[in-house]
Amino acid sequence: MHQADVVIVGAGPAGLGIASHIKRPFLILEKENRPGGLMRSKMIDGFTFDWAGHIFFTGIDRIRTWVEHLMGGNFHWQDRESWIYSKSTYTRYPFQANTYGLPTEVVKECLLGLIEATYQDVNTPPGNFRDWIYQTYGTGIARHFLIPYNEKIWARDLSTMDYEWLGGRVPRPGLAEFVDGALGPGHKNMGPNARFGYPLSGGIEALARKMSEPITDVIRPGTRVTGIDPARKRILTDTGDEITYRDLVLTAPLPEMIAATRDVPAEIERAARSLEHLSVLCVNVGIEQAQSTDRHWVYFPEPDFLFHRVFVQGNAAPGVCPEEYFSFTAEITYNSTKRIDFNTAGDQTVNGLIQSGLMNRDDRVAVVDLVDIPVGYVVPTHDRRPAVETIRRWYKTFDIHLAGRFAEWAYYNMDHSLDAGWTLADQLSAK
Ligand SMILES: Cc1cc2nc3c(=O)[nH]c(=O)nc-3n(C[C@H](O)[C@H](O)[C@H](O)COP(=O)(O)OP(=O)(O)OC[C@H]3O[C@@H](n4cnc5c(N)ncnc54)[C@H](O)[C@@H]3O)c2cc1C
Predict the structure, then answer these.
(1) Which residue, by CA, sits nearest to atom 3 of ligand 1?
(2) What domain count does the chain have?
(3) Which of 132, 72, 32 is nearest to 382 (CA)?
(4) With a 6 A CB cut-off, is 252 part of the ligand 1 pocket?
(5) I need a labelling partner for 135 at 20 to 30 A (CA). Which of 28, 308, 317, 319 fits?
(6) How many angstroms is it from 414 CA to the middle of ligand 1?
């Protein structure tokens, strides 16, 4: 039996955010063989691919300052080249401000819908994500992009979701901006990630490595937490360890942590069962061709393409491909109702890259590699927030705390998870 003051489950951004700022002794248990969580990368035949393309952007000043300071010279910033491919046409992201090039009928429908949405006399806030899309952008933009894209990625009826998770992520153009972006190649820099950062070498994992370097002696990789006994303040691991703690921090997926916890009341189990997620299959493709596009990522709303988004990994940094080679990561969501065939996903992805012109038919394919992320997106259902709060309150009575995307079951990016960890570190340090 070991004793620790603070035990942290998971060495992803949230766990590293806590570990880097807490002023109490701690131990991190991580089931994978190295830290990083989804902020990890893999190397294959000279290519570097992230665990799904991960770019860094943030509106949180202390996180930006910390990351820039840590990364020093191994970091660069780029203006986003983000596009949408629909109706055999590339338009700039965001769709709602950039319809230039689409068929005239489509542009007209989008404009009329936006005018109607702008001047409609509605006093009640929308009740769900689907209504929010129609109420905010009108029928044209909804029908030609926002509904098909979101139904493809979320694989469900959008009226079962709330929309507070968007929190400023989706820009709303004014009418003048819409007209500008319909008559010419309009708006490049709308939205929070118009400029993004990325390590020059090592993929996004370079950031995790920098964060974990000073604390390697207190990270225990290859150790999965399998049991939590809140009453005795004790955890069990798959390596046979029993560890007691004063405070326990969970950053691993909440339903999995509840399942590992002893003597959970029925109300808490019910809350955990209501939490839904999506899995993500990433198809990494490396080709022999120096640079087949200058785009950074492309959204695909139409069902002809298996993937909903392609991250152009080859343009993230000069160091991620061997010389004269280029690379992509296609993202495909799935769950028990939206099934995908892992055996054909590689071929379907390569065909989609050719069909959309991101690569040429005669480019030699050097690498096709699959990365499965079983818990990738938390689904913002209407029940999510109260369920998480119920669980959080119950755990807190046992000095068990939640931080990060999967423990708080929130739509967090890396910066939010890092910041959630930092905030909790301050609270625990003052305890
Ligand atoms: C497809 C996709 C694309 C994304 N793109 C971006 C992007 O471009 N930019 C961005 O900022 N964010 C992006 N994100 C979000 C980002 O990945 C997350 O916000 C962030 O990784 C969450 O950090 P975390 O520490 O909360 O969780 P995680 O990164 O999942 O870390 C949790 C850690 O807990 C460990 N763990 C789990 N169970 C156990 C257990 N039982 N015992 C011990 N350890 C355990 C895991 O191995 C993992 O290391 C993306 C996410 C996805 C799915």
Answers:
(1) 52
(2) 3
(3) 132
(4) yes
(5) 308
(6) 8
Q: Domain containing 21: what range? A: 2-39+202-276+380-429
Q: Is the CB of 14 under 6 A from ligand 1?
A: yes
Q: Does 376 sit in the ligand 1 pocket, CB within 6 Å?
A: yes
Comparing C-alpha atoms, which of 423, 320, 297 is closest to residue 367?
320
From the list 222, 251, 221, 248, the residue with the least C-alpha distance to 235 is 248
Instruction: Give me the tens of pLDDT residue by residue for the chain, a chain 431 residues long.
Output: 789 999 999 999 999 999 999 999 999 999 999 999 999 999 999 999 999 999 999 999 999 999 999 999 999 999 999 999 999 999 999 998 999 999 999 999 999 999 999 998 888 889 999 999 999 999 999 999 999 999 999 999 999 999 988 876 777 788 888 888 999 887 677 777 889 999 999 999 999 999 999 999 999 999 999 999 999 999 999 999 999 999 999 999 999 999 999 999 999 999 999 999 999 999 999 999 999 999 999 999 999 999 999 999 999 999 899 999 999 999 999 999 999 999 999 999 999 999 999 999 999 999 999 999 999 999 999 999 999 999 999 999 999 999 999 999 999 999 999 999 999 999 999 98
Pair 163, 308 in one domain: no
Which residue has 């920098």 as its token pair?
210
Query: Do the domain assignments include residue 68?
Result: no
* 224 pocket-lining for ligand 1 (C-beta < 6 Å): yes
Domain of residue 312, CATH code: 3.90.660.20
Using only C-alpha atoms, what is the Rg of the chain?
22
